[in-house]
Amino acid sequence: MNENVKVDKRRYNAPRRAAQAADTRHAILVAARALFVERGYAATTVAEIATQAGVSVDTVYASIGRKPVLLRELVETALSGTDHAIPARQREYVRAIREANGAEDKITIYAEALVGIQQRLAPIFLALREAAVTDASCARVWAEISERRAVNMREFAADLRGTGQLRDDLSDDEVADIIWSMNATEYWVLLVGERQWTAARFRDWLADAWIRLLLRAPHSAR
């Protein structure tokens, strides 16, 4: 066979293989999410995930990894809204926050984004919290995600401080801690899951609460 033909076939097959790998990864993540949420992390086996995804156990390991890695990937993809982890600074809503001029606009953009995140994240985050009680690997993931949120909120607080609209009697660390506590999945579950708030009501309440708590008076009417 002509060498050029071989090269052309490899070039042709590479995108197809990449698409197949992406489809396989997606199927595994969907299966793992469904089983972790329905049955719990401890009660779910990799074999069951593989069966539901229509692949072999070896394919699960090769495509993503063992159970703790699967759970981490589910958290990361829920945060990013894609099938892959995206660093916070590269997410579209973070860019929009940084480009906004006023503190109220920044807070409103974040509250809107947070609602979308929690709708994806809450079920799997609760599965992670349960798994962290008995599984050391999951406990490390839990601690890492929690600390990463805290770091990101300190950056958000500094960004808000740059508008000149934050209260002078609150330090950036205090602002970050307040936002960190109220953007937690547990807070979403309490109001939306248990008290039956709508996502829109939660979004509007959160933005209004942060504006009232964190910014200097007077505030613009909302």
- % residues in beta strands: under 5%
Mean pLDDT: 91
Count every helix, treating DSSP H or I runs of 4 or more residues as helices: 10
Largest sheet: number of strands, sense, barrel closure: none
Shape assignment: elongated
**How many angstroms separate the termini?**
71 Å
- The oligomeric state of the chains shown is single chain
Low-confidence spans: none
How many strands in all? 0
Characterization of this structure:
The structure is a single chain. The chain has 222 residues and is mostly helical. It has helices spanning 3-39, 46-53, 57-63, 67-80, 92-99, 103-134, 136-161, 172-182, 185-194, 199-214. The protein is elongated, with a radius of gyration of 21 Å.
Summary, kept brief:
The chain is mainly alpha-helical and 222 residues long. It has helices at 3-39, 46-53, 57-63, 67-80, 92-99, 103-134, 136-161, 172-182, 185-194, 199-214. Helix content is 76%, strand content 0%.
Question: Which characteristics define this entry?
Answer:
222 residues; 10 helices; mainly alpha
List the helices and strands and how they pair.
Blueprint: H1 3-39, H2 46-53, H3 57-63, H4 67-80, H5 92-99, H6 103-134, H7 136-161, H8 172-182, H9 185-194, H10 199-214
Helix pairs in contact: 1-2, 1-4, 4-6, 5-6, 6-7, 6-9, 6-10, 7-8
